[in-house]
Amino acid sequence: MNHVTSKDGVPIAYERSGKGPPLVLIHGAAADHTRWMSILPELEKHFTVYAVDRRGRGKSGDVQPYAIDREYEDVVAVVDSIPGPVNLLGHSYGAICSLEASLKTSNLQKLILYEPPIHTDVKKNYPPDAIDRMNSYLQVEEREKALIVFLQEIVGIPQNEITMLRSLPNWSTRVSTAHTIAREEASVCSYIFNPPRFSRMETPTLLLLGGDSPPFFRAAIEILKESIPNSRIAIMPGQQHAAMETGPRLFLNEVTGFLTEEKG
Questions:
Q1: Among residues 232, 187, 167, which one has the least CA distance to residue 28?
Q2: Domain 2-122+193-260: CATH architecture, name and number where available
Q3: Mean pLDDT over all residues of the chain?
Q4: This prediction's pTM
Q5: Nearest-angstrom CA–CA distance, 41 and 249
Q6: Out of 41, 46, 156, 193, which could bridge 118 as a Cys pair, Cβ 3.0 to 4.6 Å?
């Protein structure tokens, strides 16, 4: 693993592999750089991939108190350490971090955002006690139970996809990072997306959406499309929030097609 030092002194780890234009990958909640295992071999054929461990997991450091703004700076630290311009792909919570980081660096070539959970008029419809139950499980170190509550009830991933995710080699990593879910869900709830801040953004941006994803993700993507001038939506039929595992070919086709085309 390689490291860069973020603005607040925290070391941020990443695994570098492949050959070609640089592509930085920022994973979402309850994950680390192994989140991309299923598609990494194909990405490595086209890009030099920088798969990041976000702070608080893997080989990256952490500091208290937590603030999502530090995660923006972490992404910038990685992007700015690479001879550019750099492509940046963020998933879920990592997509919020990537979106905000895009305003803090001039080293971007293209940006891909896969279902960032920004607030819209379409609210998440999950049981009112879901977060309390998740936190209760975390307090007694029942991390897997907390993770399943988060994935199934809060994110809206269906049971068949959760069963598939549990069969993957990196499930144990997801479980081990479950303690970070609570702070990130709190940050999502307090994050305010301000469209005018992105009105002059010039970076070509691809907005990925699963065709079967919950309405709140679709609403978020549509708001981003209206707010980012040089952006477009790509819908992956039959997919939801984990297309890199459930529909890897669809996911790769959209990502590599966008990044390798001459015009964004």
A1: 187
A2: 3-Layer(aba) Sandwich (3.40)
A3: 93
A4: 0.93
A5: 12
A6: 193
Q: What are the domain boundaries of the chain?
A: 2-122+193-260
Tokens of 198: 């992105």
Question: By C-alpha distance, which of 100, 77, 85, 65 is closest to 5?
Answer: 77
Please identify which residue in the block is written with the tokens 């279902």: 115
Give φ, ψ of 128 to 5 degrees. Answer: -60, -20
Res. 122: pLDDT tops 70:
no
Q: Report the C-alpha gap between 192 and 110 in whole angstroms.
A: 23
Residue 232 bridge partners (DSSP): 206
Write out the two tokens for 241.
Answer: 């929030």
Nearest residue to 103 via CA among 227, 3, 251: 227
Of 235, 238, 248, 243, nearest in space to 209 by CA: 235
Largest separation between any pair of C-alpha atoms in the chain: 52
